[in-house]
Design a protein that fits this description.
alpha+beta
């Protein structure tokens, strides 16, 4: 059983016991290119992303919360990327694989067989985004009483968006929370807000997930907003 299958098993068991509906949305894997790049290239064509492609580059930098991306590649037309990092300069041997959009409504997620092939090559997971969706606009008042919400402002227009970050969670393994209006982001024809927990995986051999902590935070969004 690969690590994502183990993670999904833990989540499914938690969901059944706690009447929840958490799901994995994104996967990140740090890897060494010198050992894995040749095998990855056998999966399909990796297209280098133009640095001027603001839509994708901004998405990677925003979602990964890093300014260290030197170049990025996309696997064909899938929501699967790897980026080269300058953390390992001058040799630039390290890269980060990112698989986005495993839980979507507006388009198909990356094919499971492609995800399995990548995991069989890289054999590890650095972090995952676990998400929960609300089919109404939740109130953020309770969550503001416990955490500082940083509202994302569109850098080019300086327009405040309906996306919020909790960058200092105070919770073990949960690096940050992202709360956003998914209806607007993906042009859905129904109300949908999402909270995502970026969870680090420090040791895949002794796998544990802070699902109870995520439940406690997501419960703070349980009341419908009248705004």
């Amino acid at each position: 059983m690969n690590i994502i299958a183990e993670i999904e098993k833990l989540i499914n068991e938690f969901n059944q016991t706690n009447d929840e509906d958490f799901e994995v949305d994104s996967i990140r894997i740090e890897f060494s290119k010198q050992h894995k790049k040749e095998q990855l290239e056998k999966i399909g064509v990796w297209r280098k992303i133009n640095k001027n492609d603001k839509k994708i580059m901004d998405k990677l930098k925003k979602r990964l919360d890093t300014s260290e991306i030197t170049s990025a590649y996309q696997l064909e037309d899938y929501n699967i990327y790897y980026y080269n990092s300058n953390k390992d300069k001058p040799k630039y041997r390290k890269a980060m694989m990112v698989i986005f959009g495993l839980k979507q409504y507006h388009k198909s997620p990356p094919p499971q067989h492609i995800v399995r092939m990548i995991l069989s090559i890289l054999k590890n997971v650095s972090s995952v985004d676990i998400c929960k969706d609300f089919l109404y606009k939740p109130s953020l008042q309770q969550i503001k009483q416990h955490f500082y919400l940083k509202r994302y402002v569109e850098p080019r227009t300086r327009t405040p968006t309906e996306t919020y970050y909790i960058n200092n969670t105070g919770l073990s393994m949960i690096e940050k929370f992202t709360i956003y209006n998914k209806q607007i982001k993906n042009n859905l024809n129904f109300t949908c807000w999402r909270i995502e927990a970026l969870i680090t995986i420090p040791n895949s051999k002794f796998l544990a997930l802070p699902l109870q902590e995520f439940k406690q935070v997501s419960n703070l969004m349980g009341e419908q907003s009248n705004d």
